[in-house]
Amino acid sequence: MKKEHLYSGKGKSIFATDNPNHIIMHFRDDLTAFNGEKKETCLGKGIYLNNINAFLMDKLAQQGVKTSFIEKINQRESLTHKLDMIQLEFVVRNIAAGTIVKRVGLTKGSPLSPPIQELFLKNDKLGDPFINIHYVNSLKITSAEVVAQAEKISLQVNDIIKDVFTKINIDLVDFKLEFGLLDGELYLGDEISPDTCRLWDQKSKRPFDKDLFRFDLGDVKEGYDRICELLGLKVTIDTHDLQADHQDN
């Protein structure tokens, strides 16, 4: 049962449940970019992301990846395990795009083989800075063993999700993951969605992700709806769902 509101991030609100080991992730319709500097509301966006995330988390679980996801409980919300989150973001890049293009001087769209893995400190006030294992060790964020395990799982996740999208003629350009501990074991947490991945049409290279909003490249709702359609997800957005998003936050 959904209880008190615990906290809100950029696009989700977290609620307690009757079980102290479980939480509810409520996907809101807020769109943010550039560390919250650009903001907008896209009605129904949270519903698309909740459905896509549930689908991908199920795929990962089927392949033996331990995730926080338990079940989708309605159009906007999912029940998950409560993790002790690690304050790092693990990024996997299959194709050059975003910050790596400027930072390393790569050409946008260049394939990266093997994939490049990057670490970022999860800190909104600092803009989630790019770091390496030496920072992790010195600042005692977590152990080097946990980082190595998370990076290994990240590549496994990459193989599974890339295959899912390749089958629908979409390139998985890059994505970020977050991890947490549960009873001493490492679990994949947070979400996997067009808000946390770059997804390009294989032929046209048209994006179907949050870059549509970041760089004013098109309609976000259309892009997310297209991903749902390609994945075979039947997503219905009605007035009650939209009202619920505002009532719960």
Keywords:
single chain; alpha+beta; 7-stranded antiparallel beta sheet; globular
Description:
With 249 residues, this protein is of the alpha+beta class. Helices cover 32% and strands 33% of the residues. The chain contains seven helices and 14 strands. It has helices spanning 45-62, 99-104, 133-139, 144-166, 211-214, 220-231, 239-247, and strands at residues 2-8, 12-17, 22-27, 30-33, 38-41, 69-72, 77-81, 84-85, 88-95, 111-121, 130-131, 170-182, 185-189, 197-201. Strands 8, 9, 10, 11, 12, 13 and 14 form a seven-stranded antiparallel sheet that branches. Strands 1-2-3-7-6 form a five-stranded antiparallel sheet. A hairpin with a 3-residue loop joins strand 1 and strand 2 (12-17). Helix 1 runs parallel beside helix 6 (220-231). The longest helix is centred in the middle third of the chain and has 23 residues, at 144-166. The two termini are 17 Å apart.
Layout of SSEs?
Layout lengths: L1 E7 L3 E6 L4 E6 L2 E4 L4 E4 L3 H18 L6 E4 L4 E5 L2 E2 L2 E8 L3 H6 L6 E11 L8 E2 L1 H7 L4 H23 L3 E13 L2 E5 L7 E5 L9 H4 L5 H12 L7 H9 L2
Antiparallel strand pairs: 1-2, 2-3, 3-7, 4-5, 6-7, 8-12, 9-10, 9-12, 10-11, 12-13, 12-14
Helix pairs in contact: 1-6
Concise account of the structure shown:
32% of the residues lie in helices and 33% in strands.
Largest sheet: 7 strands, antiparallel
Uncertain stretches of 5 or more adjacent residues: none
Beta content comes to 25-35%
Amino- and carboxy-terminal Cα gap: 17 Å
Task: Look at the structure and give the mean pLDDT.
Answer: 95
Listing every helix as H and every strand as E from the N terminus to the C terminus, the arrangement reads EEEEEHEEEEHEEHHEEEHHH
